[in-house]
TrEMBL record:
It comes from Nocardioides hwasunensis. Gene3D superfamilies: Winged helix-like DNA-binding domain superfamily/Winged helix DNA-binding domain. PROSITE patterns: HTH_LUXR_2. This is Response regulator transcription factor. SMART domains: HTH_LUXR (SM00421). It comes from the Bacteria. Residues 1-59 form the HTH luxR-type domain. It holds the Pfam family HTH_23. InterPro entries: Sig_transdc_resp-reg_C-effctor, Tscrpt_reg_LuxR_C, WalR-like, WH-like_DNA-bd_sf. Keywords: DNA-binding.
Amino acid sequence: MPDDQVRVLRLMAEGDTIDVVARKLGISERTVRRRARAACDTLGCETTIEAIVWAVRHGHL
């Protein structure tokens, strides 16, 4: 999984909202959503929560 997707999932796993993630990373909210969706697609997950759980269980977060 690319680093940009990992950074987004990590911040979301810590409880940050999309707008907070965007501010912290200096990107738009749309880009945050796109990266979260890409992470889901990469991992074969339906939701961001599922992607976060998968990434934690497999040592990516």
